[in-house]
Design a protein that fits this description.
This protein has twelve helices and 15 strands. By secondary structure, it is an alpha/beta fold. The structure holds nicotinamide-adenine-dinucleotide. The site of nicotinamide-adenine-dinucleotide (NAD) has 33 residues, from α1, α4 and β5.
């Protein structure tokens, strides 16, 4: 896992996972360039890389305009490809936007990589959402692909671009399929980004946690430091049998239990159950639990941070830096839900409270 002196490109590097990866790469001695325009509605935040700002080059471009930074691609030893939109709900309201961000932009970027840096190592941030509603648990890489939302369909297309171009020798890609990731630097000011950022935001704002449905669905959240480690290993892997790997957390807990642990870490009241809103019910996948055996066997990776510990570390991080993640006043979180005028814009806190 030697990164010292390597030229590393991180797409989406101002976002949650990309920035944590960047911080670690700088620590390991890599020369990092980030490509990220901070797309409205996504989780990018320039403050995420504050500790390494002087050591990192940031190109404020969209990866679909990759010709603009062709020389940087050509000089890259490893590319970590994390640019993307994570909201399943946004993808249902704005399918073409999701298609553009998660598929078309990826296609353009990969074709540029093929032209400028044939055979370059790329590690792609895929998602467990491609499996849809699990037919069995834990879910392994052989599970059928039946996404329940556009985000899953579009991310799967991008995964297949990486796979196909690797088969033809144009790229040397690894694809990681991530379960719910949480930890420092996830966006709190963008609604509809998943239940974990909502939990953290509500706890920091002193609001009670709400659980949709009966709270018995299982999830296996994975702490961001563990995810970063899986990317770093995949970035230098050699001679593996597989190219696609599930990446999940160390334990599967019910949503009610996760909410209870989070509330208890924050000293907040017990969470309350609420009926499922219709738009979320349609894309709910029921219980999910990752089978991490393949990545354990082939890449020697396993998740280490348990939820009770990870959520405490997460809350501590934000308490010290709250103004950078939840600015006060009228200028609140970003959203692009249709009821908010159809275009991405910043919301007021009153609006956020209604959508948390
Ligand atoms: N967070 C999770 O739980 C999770 C789970 C599964 C998969 N993933 C995948 O991991 C990746 C990173 O997720 P995250 O949680 O850090 O999201 P994030 O929203 O915090 O960060 C994504 C970043 O990508 C940038 N971006 C989006 N489209 C871009 C484009 N066309 N060109 C350049 N930059 C672009 C955004 O500006 C943002 O800074 C995504 O591809 C996501 O699909 C995340």
């Amino acid at each position: 896992m030697n990164y010292r002196g390597l030229n590393v490109l991180v797409t989406g590097g101002l976002g949650f996972i990309g920035s944590n990866l960047t911080l670690r790469l700088v620590e390991l001695g890599a020369k990092v360039t980030i490509v990220d325009p901070i797309l409205p509605g996504c989780g990018g935040n320039a403050c995420n890389i504050d500790p390494v700002r002087e050591s990192v080059r940031v190109i404020g471009a969209d990866i679909s305009d990759a010709a603009q930074f062709r020389d940087t691609i050509a000089a890259s030893d490893v590319i970590f490809n994390l640019a993307g939109e994570i909201s399943h709900l946004h993808s249902m309201h704005f399918p073409e936007r999701d298609l553009q961000i998660n598929t078309v932009a990826q296609l353009r970027f990969l074709l540029e990589c093929k032209a400028a840096a044939r055979g370059v190592r790329i590690v792609y941030a895929g998602t467990r959402q491609v499996y849809g509603k699990p037919r069995y648990l834990p879910v392994d890489e052989g599970h059928s692909i039946e996404p329940v939302d556009f985000n899953g369909v579009h991310k799967y297309a991008a995964t297949q671009y990486h796979r196909m171009l690797t088969r033809t020798g144009d790229l040397d890609a690894y694809m990681l399929r991530l379960t719910n990731v949480y930890g420092p630097r996830m966006a709190l000011d963008a609604v509809c980004q998943g239940f974990l950022s909502t939990y953290v935001r509500r706890l920091l704002l002193g609001q009670p946690l709400e659980i949709y449905g009966d709270g018995r669905q299982l999830r296996d959240p994975v702490y961001v430091d563990d995810v970063v480690q899986s990317f770093l290993i995949a970035g230098r892997a050699q001679g593996t049998i597989s190219r696609s790997f599930n990446v999940g957390g160390p334990e599967a807990l019910s949503l009610a239990e996760l909410a209870r642990l989070a509330a208890s870490a924050a000293g907040a009241p017990e969470p309350v159950l609420r009926p499922f809103p219709d738009d979320r019910k349609n894309i709910d996948i029921g219980s999910y639990r990752t089978d991490n055996n393949r990545i354990g066997r082939e890449l020697d990776w396993s998740p280490r941070v348990r939820f009770a510990d990870g959520i405490r570390r997460t809350l501590d991080f934000y308490r010290e830096r709250l103004p950078h993640y939840l600015p006060t006043g009228d200028v609140g979180p970003v959203c692009n839900m249709p009821e908010h005028s159809g275009a991405p814009r910043r919301l007021t806190y009153a609006e956020v409270a209604r959508h948390s």
